[in-house]
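Revision sheet: structure tokens.
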Amino acid sequence: MSASSKNQFLTFALSFLDSNSDSLTQLMEKAIASFSILELKKNDYFVKENEVCTYFCYVESGILQHSILIEGEEKTSYLALKNSVTSSLNSFLFQKPSRKSIKAIADTQLWVVDLKTFKELISNNEAFHQFYYNLIEKQICLIDDYRIDLLTLTPEERYKKLLTNEPKLLQEVPLHYLASFLGISNRHMSRIRKSIL
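Predicted:
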């Protein structure tokens, strides 16, 4: 693992701390040292539906697609891009079968940690505990906004909001994954894009 990739992870983690004191920075560096590198090729799975998720991860590069199968059709529930963290959290924390699959839709490099080490970090490393708490708090707010948007915004409004708030998604993620994520058919998504361009 290169120093630059380690610094990228550290910078991301420190952004969630309430203060960047030297002692917290050192604790966060120790926490990151507990992670290891996992490389996934395009279409490799991080976890498959009905299997137990073994890792919590930071995405250093690439894209992870969270999906479920509904009547044989793959539906995207989330997209984890570079410089984000993800897991099938319910499966990971409680060691039960995952209700979704997570796969790489591009070559992807991850920093991963297993459950035993994760729990030790939460219990014994103040910086990691603070990082995780603030991260989850932010994610809950984002999920809440996303669910409200699905109920209150038109497909066009959802696309425009994504265009404004997450331009990276539109540049990096294939259109059919984005359409599924936004709850829009591929055909409708193409029409929306043409009308906005």
